[in-house]
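This is your field. Have a critical look at the following sequence-structure pair:

***
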Amino acid sequence: MNRLQSEFEAAVLAGGECLSDWHVITQDMVNEYAALTGDGEGEWVHLDPSRAAQEPPYYGTIVQGFLQVSHLVRLHAQAVKDRPLIDRNHALNYGFDRLRFVGQMPVGAKFRARVRANEIVTKSGGGRVLKQEVRLELEDGRPTLVADWLFYLDPRAFGES
């Protein structure tokens, strides 16, 4: 392990939680996402604000789960912007160990990402896997999404060839 790897690991694991800026998903974004992906087509709970406003338990439209996931990229980058720098071209999305939608996100609600690094595991060949707990939370603190998100850090991320 080189000096940059050691410094990165120590700083990330000791850094505690990181928070993104507040963000809002609008009804237009929900509609465009449904048209692009088919996720939510024909579902009043996502696309019909008038009907959803009358229906318990939602009382308004809610954001599709995978639209929330797609916002993790930007919000994660905002949250970890002050962490030690590595070459992000060699820090690759490795997937999720766990992804759960634990609450509804009302369309138009303010939310942010909360990120905490849990562990870094060395892989054969010198790479590392960074495991982070990522949560999307509403302004009142209720989570809507909880995930363990993995990133593969190639040795080149630390300036090794």
